[in-house]
Amino acid sequence: MRKIGEGLIRIGVMTKTQVDDVLARQKSGDKRLFGEIASSLGYINNEALRSYLSTKSGCRFRLDCHFYNIEEKVASYVHLKEFYCDEWPQKCAIYQQQVAGKSVPTTLLPTDTPEEIREP
Question: How far apart are CA 69 and CA 67, in angstroms?
Fold first, then answer.
């Protein structure tokens, strides 16, 4: 999966210097998502971020998805994100709840298994 910063540079929304700034802030301990930091610094706006994400294959709900936006580095979460969020969103329990207009518990995993989601 291509990194968001690379994609935003490629489509001309951000410069390499801006991407490097956001990444440095994350490395220094800023726990926010890349898009949140870039938006707060005025590098992009939410509309530009949503537009970029909508051009990518994968889940249309990922910008607001509690699971997709976890920065957890556990291998099982990475694999779940690759399978459900990027390749087969329609098989994801969270996606199915969203499409049905139902509320999504923050403990729901793509596999339809409620679990306590760990933050690093």
Answer: 5
Tokens of 85: 């969020």
Mention every residue, 6+ apart, whose C-beta is less than 8 A from residue 79. Answer: none
| Domains of the chain, residue spans | 4-55, 58-120
Q: Which residues of 49-68 are buried (b: 16+ CB within 10 A; e: fewer)?
A: beebbeeeebbebbbebebb
Mean pLDDT along residues 55-76: 81
How many residues are given for the chain? 120
pTM: 0.51
First to last CA, the chain: 21
